[in-house]
């Protein structure tokens, strides 16, 4: 299993203001579902940051997202380790398969793969 990207998720009600602020640093909007917006660097597209009002299909807002090449293997590794699964593995309507797990610092990590 390999990591494709890591994205901090910032809980925010100021999407427009964040888009403008981070735009000054070279970020551009690459995804916007209304409740989550992701900005990426034009020169380095894997450099991203997301802003969320709340997670639409999960009970908590994750602190970060980690995209992996095999989300099922990641889920099995976390489950087998005894890590706390906060949100079960599931397919989402926007094209990702994901689950949430709590890290040793209490942070919630959204582990995902694109279908």
Please name the defining characteristics of this protein:
about 120 residues, alpha+beta, 2,3-Dihydroxybiphenyl 1,2-Dioxygenase, domain 1, 8 strands, about 15% helix, globular, Glyas_Fos-R_dOase_dom, VOC family protein, Glyas_Bleomycin-R_OHBP_Dase
How would you characterize the largest beta sheet? 8 strands, mixed
Mean pLDDT: 95
Taking pLDDT < 50 over at least 5 consecutive residues as the criterion, the unreliable ranges are none
Structural class: alpha+beta
Task: Report Rg.
Answer: 14 Å
Q: What is the CATH superfamily label?
A: 2,3-Dihydroxybiphenyl 1,2-Dioxygenase, domain 1
Counting DSSP H or I runs of 4 or more residues, the number of helices is 2
Share in helix:
10-25%
Strand order of the largest sheet: 2-3-4-1-5-8-7-6
End-to-end Cα distance: 15 Å
Order of helices and strands: EHEEEEHEEE
Question: Could you describe the 3D structure shown?
Answer:
The protein has 115 residues and is α+β, with helices and mostly antiparallel strands. It has a single domain (3-114), classed as Roll (2,3-Dihydroxybiphenyl 1,2-Dioxygenase, domain 1), CATH 3.10.180. It is 17% helix and 45% strand. It is built from two helices and eight strands, in the order E-H-E-E-E-E-H-E-E-E. It has helices at residues 15-23, 71-81, and strands at 3-11, 27-32, 36-41, 48-52, 64-68, 85-91, 96-102, 108-114. Strands 2-3-4-1-5-8-7-6 form an eight-stranded mixed β-sheet, with helices on one face. The mean pLDDT is 95.
């Amino acid at each position: 299993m390999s990591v494709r990207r890591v994205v901090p998720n910032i809980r925010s009600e100021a999407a427009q203001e964040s888009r403008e602020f981070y735009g000054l640093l070279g970020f551009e909007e690459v995804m916007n579902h209304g409740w989550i917006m992701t900005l990426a660097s034009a020169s380095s597209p894997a450099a991203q940051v997301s802003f969320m009002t709340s997670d639409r299909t999960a009970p908590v807002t994750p602190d970060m997202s980690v995209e992996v090449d095999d989300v099922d293997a990641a889920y099995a590794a976390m489950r087998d380790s005894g890590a706390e699964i906060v949100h079960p593995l599931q397919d989402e309507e926007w094209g990702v398969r994901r689950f949430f797990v709590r890290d040793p610092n209490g942070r919630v990590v959204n582990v995902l793969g694109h279908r």
